[in-house]
């Protein structure tokens, strides 16, 4: 199949396929004398794998490492995709239930507890672990994962998650105020201490994390579920707080 046919079939742009070729992620098996890319059945299978990984939020650099590895097992990868997508579906279903109940609550038809209001929001795991490793190194991320695993083992994770969601809600109430204000800095200080339970954050790392909240649309979308503009507010408040931390 030629590039336009593959693009139409897979729902991606021709430019995307050209980019995948240029970075060595998906190289067509044939190139005609006229310079046209021709994709084989094996190329299509590999493209499906790439798009599954993209759907799950993997960066292209990591996808290339995985699919070009001599140890790559397509069937094993498909099973992993299935497991991760099932978990993602459960998460989305929970959020949809929360939205539906929130609509009923807004209409006065039902009452929602604070816990029910934030059902489905989970910021205790890190879906952007690869980016974190690239920014702050394997040791920092491994230490953080170990702390989270210990909290889960000790049954502390649910309470921690509730506290985290409650703090997000509190910060959302403050998002229209000055991020340098006493209340905003007190709340962001709690955020710093809460994050420090899962890992060690230098002033630079804490400020960098806040910048990622705005630079990465995935972070922005999740955080702004608590209130539009919260990600920007947290970035600014975290930068101010970080400047006061010991260097």
Automatic annotation (TrEMBL):
Keyword DNA-binding included in the entry's annotation: yes
Name of the protein: MerR family transcriptional regulator
Taxonomic lineage: Bacteria, Bacillati, Bacillota, Bacilli, Bacillales
Alphabetized SMART domains for the sequence: HTH_MERR (SM00422)
Keyword Flavoprotein part of the UniProt annotation: no
PANTHER family reported for this sequence: HTH-TYPE TRANSCRIPTIONAL ACTIVATOR MTA (PTHR30204:SF90), REDOX-CYCLING DRUG-SENSING TRANSCRIPTIONAL ACTIVATOR SOXR (PTHR30204)
A GO molecular-function annotation: DNA binding
Domain of life: Bacteria
Keywords, comma-separated and alphabetical: Activator, DNA-binding, Transcription, Transcription regulation
InterPro entries: DNA-bd_dom_put_sf, MerR-type_HTH_dom, MerR_fam, TipA-like_antibiotic-bd, TipAS_dom
Domain HTH merR-type: 1-69
Pfam families named in the record: MerR_1, TipAS
